[in-house]
Specification:
Blueprint (H helix, E strand, L loop, with lengths): L1 E10 L5 E4 L1 H11 L5 E6 L5 E6 L5 H12 L16 H9 L3 E7 L2 E2 L6 E6 L6 E10 L1
Antiparallel strand pairs: 1-8, 2-7, 3-5, 3-8, 4-7, 5-6
């Protein structure tokens, strides 16, 4: 059994966003898990971001962001009030979109469905710098 982990940084910008991480995840596996079976864990060590496995490019990523805007409006209802208006909702996000996903790896490839991608979900317009940790456990 082997364990490998790595972090990388990305900038999400000053708007709500869904950033496709699939290629970076697969590149990591190409380096550390060539031909191996195991598990890939994708984790964002932030209190205001999450990881989703969704379809991208056909509007589902924007639909998810729109649904989150409806569920978690950026207004003054939140008790957590520092930062930009409605920032408290960003701290509720990880309760709905977990800050991690664990995915099967088969023969060194993420075993995603045809239309699935690994996506960072970030609604926090005040913190544009994000860290992503990728970890592989397998053999």
């Amino acid at each position: 059994m082997t364990f490998s982990t790595r972090t990388f940084q990305l900038t999400t910008g000053h708007r709500e966003t869904a950033v496709d991480l699939t290629d970076r995840c697969q590149s990591f596996l190409d380096e550390v898990a060539a031909g191996a079976d195991g598990l890939l864990n994708v984790f964002v060590p932030h209190a205001t971001a999450g990881v989703a496995v969704i379809e991208t490019g056909a509007g589902s990523d924007e639909d998810l962001l729109a649904a989150l805007r409806e569920l978690l409006p950026a207004d003054d209802r939140w008790r957590h009030r520092h930062g930009s208006p409605g920032h408290g909702r960003d701290h509720v996000l990880p309760g709905l979109v977990a800050p991690h996903a664990t995915l099967p790896v088969v023969d060194g490839r993420i075993a995603l469905g045809t239309w699935q991608s690994v996506v960072l979900i970030d609604t926090n317009i005040s913190n544009v710098n994000r860290t992503v940790r990728l970890s592989f456990l397998g053999g």
